[in-house]
Structure prediction request, 160 residues.
Amino acid sequence: MAEETLPETQIEAHNDGFGLARTHRTLPIALLRAREVVMERFRPMLAANDVTEQQWRVMRVLEEAGETDASFLANKACILAPSLTRIMRTLEARGFLQSHRDKTDGRRMLITLTEEGRAFIRELAPQSAEIYASIEEKIGCENIDTLLDQIENLLRALDN
Prediction:
């Protein structure tokens, strides 16, 4: 996604009367734009393997966390609970995850990756690592670490 610039006259003339910053210099827009330029590198790999970004996030969180409940999974995968239910059905149908009721709390669903799900992640891991390496090559490992640290700081500071 290329940086779009406005002619200097439009930049100077911009005055919305509310004291709002130009959208390209607002945190929400900048974070969305950054997400899009990163994800456009991963989307072809995901599409070629018939998995959505959300499904991939769910599987990656489960791969890291092991068996967990739906609330934790939705939170860590940045997915709303109703969407998670649909995603889980799809991944269960593909044999990538399984769920069952917690024996100590019947209201709680526990979810885990199956061996097929782990194998799928192992299969895509080299492609994903290659894409990540190309991003690191463009902006540098140190810059990525700094950016991730700053995002962590932002999350901690704004987490109520």
Summary: The helical segments are 8-13, 27-48, 53-65, 70-76, 81-93, 115-139, 141-158.
